[in-house]
Write a structure and sequence with these properties.
Gyrase A, domain 2, 6-stranded antiparallel beta barrel, 5-stranded antiparallel sheet, 16 strands, 34% strand
């Protein structure tokens, strides 16, 4: 299988993110409620800011990763993988109790688009947020700046579902997902839910965890992992000799009987080769031998940000 885009020049334009969904949290207590559920600070979320965050189980395992921003003073939108939306919404709703917060599936009302490259920057013009996790308005739409990948800028556009698609070149789904891999920012999907504590997928390194905020489900485990040096697994960017999929186990030739990690996200690239983000045992990184998913060979290629030094 090869990608449907052939050159890096095609990595610009817009694509409807049909594999993403949107949850709306509305009410006077919306921010306070989310503040007590997510790995991020929502109490100080401003109108021109977005938050990358994780939603964890009581065991500190990521149930979902989300991008959140304010649509109105008492309404916050949260974008996550569509295959996790129903379960995430159901679980969050169990804890609303007496809070003045209503949670709904807003996927039918809000259309999400991925924007990339110079064409998108020109189309957004002065409305393009300049730094990752900044937000702005573009007409009736809202725009969140995402970390770029392979030197290509990226934005998340949320607009009314009834509005016409952005007047931009078509960006392929493969192209968007490949840029997602290159950015080094993990997105949890159904196949990887409850597999990782946030640090295993570097969530705290890309602004997805606030260690100064109060409690949330799994907070004690996440904090212990951070401050007691117990992280033995980290996410790496990998070149792959063939197709791989999220949730697929990675093995090392030195110990083929035991999984060495798991694919987090993956996509074919402009040259037809696949790239992936994979969570790996630290002991498997740099160890002589080969990393594989079945017959597919995996080669670490580095991340766009440094990893912390391994504890002695």
């Amino acid at each position: 299988m090869t990608s449907d885009f052939s050159t890096a020049a095609s990595l610009q334009g817009a694509v409807r993110l049909t594999d993403w969904g949107v949850i709306a949290a509305t009410g006077a207590d919306a921010a306070a409620f989310l503040h007590g559920q997510m790995t991020q600070d929502f109490s100080h979320l401003g109108p021109n800011e977005a938050r990358l965050c994780g939603y964890c189980s009581a065991k500190g395992r990521l149930l979902a990763t989300l991008v959140a921003w304010r649509r109105a003073p008492e309404e916050i939108l949260l974008a996550c993988s569509a295959d996790l939306l129903a379960l995430t919404l159901k679980r969050l709703s169990m804890f609303v109790l007496r809070a003045k917060c209503k949670l709904t599936d807003a996927s039918g009302d809000v259309a999400l688009y991925g924007l990339a490259g110079g064409a998108a920057a020109a189309w957004l013009a002065g409305d393009a947020p300049a730094t990752p996790w900044a937000a702005s308005r573009h007409g009736d739409a809202q725009v969140v700046r995402l970390p770029g990948g392979a030197g290509v800028d990226r934005w998340l556009l949320a607009q009314p579902a009834s509005a016409p698609a952005p007047a931009l070149p078509a960006l392929s789904q493969d192209g968007w997902r490949w840029l997602e891999v290159q950015s080094g920012v993990a997105r949890i999907v159904a196949a990887t839910a409850e597999q990782f504590v946030p640090q295993m997928v570097n969530l705290e390194l890309v602004g997805g965890v606030n260690f100064q905020k109060g409690c949330y489900p799994g907070q004690e485990i996440v904090a212990r992992s951070q401050y007691r040096g117990t992280i033995k697994r980290r996410m790496q960017r990998l070149d792959a000799s063939g197709p791989v999929v999220p949730g697929q186990e990675i093995v090392h030739s030195a110990d083929p009987g035991q999984p060495a990690g798991m694919v987090v996200v993956a996509a074919p690239g402009p040259d037809g080769r696949w790239s992936a983000l994979g969570e790996l045992k630290l002991t498997a990184i740099g160890e002589p031998g080969a990393l594989r998913c079945g017959e597919v060979l995996l080669t670490p290629t580095g991340l766009p940000y440094p990893l912390p030094a391994e504890p002695a």
